């Protein structure tokens, strides 16, 4: 049953995350994602085959990246940051809504467990995507503080980011095997506790 909860959570969290990217991009003047049908809450528009398979292997997955064209944006760096942060913020909002439902509604076991899985994955996606390395959303936020004189470096950083994140994850796993300490694990656990505490206080 745990895998079923994870699959449902992945479908919900990835769908709202990617749909938020697409909707904000469209509102900022770029129709690229809309023309591909990504301004949608249909999970089939957003789920990635490999990312879905990984939920069974690693209990973590991802969706199809939402495309956008810098040339269609009036303020490319700023608007790219708005488009990028829309996904994680939507995951955070989802977690807040679920926390309210769980706190104030008497729920049977099955809906409760599903909502708890969606809540947990929402916060994890929110935190993970804030890491400032491409293709994660935090890399576009980094663009807000990179000087224009470093534009070429920044664009190379974005294009090479997937290599960096893979190497960092591999290194983190190796270090964790040797020392028992995981940077990503510690960051996600600490962030999860902080966000959950904040949500509990707010609700």
Detailed description of the structure:
This protein is mainly α and 203 residues long. The chain has one domain. It is 70% helix and 0% strand. It is built from eight helices and no strands. It has helices at residues 2-27, 32-35, 49-58, 76-104, 109-128, 138-142, 151-179, 183-202. α1 packs across α5, α4 packs antiparallel against α5 and α5 (109-128) packs across α8 (183-202). The longest helix has 29 residues, at 76-104.
Task: Summarize the helices and strands and which ones pair or pack.
Blueprint: H1 2-27, H2 32-35, H3 49-58, H4 76-104, H5 109-128, H6 138-142, H7 151-179, H8 183-202
Helix pairs in contact: 1-4, 1-5, 4-5, 5-8
The helix-and-strand class reads: mainly alpha
Overall helicity: over 70%
Straight-line N-to-C gap: 29 Å
If helices are DSSP runs of H or I spanning 4 or more residues, what is the number of helices? 8
Q: Rounded to an integer, what's the Rg over CA atoms?
A: 18 Å
Strand content: under 5%
Low-confidence stretches: none
